[in-house]
Specification:
With about 140 residues, the protein is an alpha/beta fold. It is built from 7 helices and 8 strands; from the N terminus they run H-E-E-H-E-E-H-H-E-E-H-E-E-H-H. It has a 4-stranded mixed sheet. About 35% of the residues are buried.
C-alpha cells in the first residue's frame, strides 16, 4: 500500500483529560458523534482512551455519578496506538490483533495528532478489496 498512518488518519481528534468528569466525556461523544475519546495527561500525552462502552460498564452499571466520576476511573489505560510516520500495514495489523476499531496516532512525544477509524480505512485505502478485508477482520471481536 505504501501509505503511512499520517496519510490515513483523521487529524486533531477531540480529546479529554483524565481529570474531566465522565459527563463531559459523554457530552463530547454526543456532540461530535463518536464512541472513543483519547485521554491526555497535563502535558497533552496519550494516557488512555475512554469509550461509550467504558462509560456504561464502569460508571452507569456501577451506579456512579457522572458528574463526580473522573474519566481516569472509566478509561482504558495505556491504549494501543501507532506513530504518525508508521506504515499503515503495521497499524492495521495492530487493529486486527487487538480487535480495536479506532487507533490513536501519536507523534514522537506521545502527543495525539490523529486517530484511525474503520471509516478512514474504508474511505482512504484505494484498494476496496484490501479495505474490506481489514474492516472485516477488525470487526470480528
Amino acid at each position: 500500500m505504501n501509505l503511512n498512518c499520517g496519510e490515513i488518519m483523521t487529524r486533531d481528534p477531540a480529546c479529554c483529560s483524565a481529570s474531566d468528569s465522565v459527563r463531559r466525556a459523554a457530552e463530547l461523544m454526543r456532540d461530535i458523534d463518536v464512541g472513543p475519546i483519547p485521554v491526555l495527561d497535563e502535558d497533552s500525552r496519550l494516557v488512555g482512551i475512554v469509550t461509550d462502552r467504558d462509560l456504561v460498564l464502569n460508571v452507569l452499571a456501577r451506579g456512579l455519578d457522572a458528574e463526580d466520576t473522573k474519566v481516569s476511573l472509566a478509561m482504558t489505560n495505556d491504549p494501543v496506538s501507532c506513530k504518525e510516520d508508521e506504515a499503515i500495514e503495521e497499524a492495521l495489523e495492530r487493529m486486527e490483533t487487538y480487535q480495536i476499531r479506532r487507533l490513536p496516532v501519536v507523534d514522537s512525544d506521545e502527543r495525539v495528532v490523529g486517530i484511525i477509524a474503520q471509516a478512514d480505512i474504508a474511505t482512504r485505502i484505494e484498494d476496496p478489496e484490501v479495505a474490506g478485508e481489514v474492516v472485516q477482520e477488525v470487526s470480528k471481536g
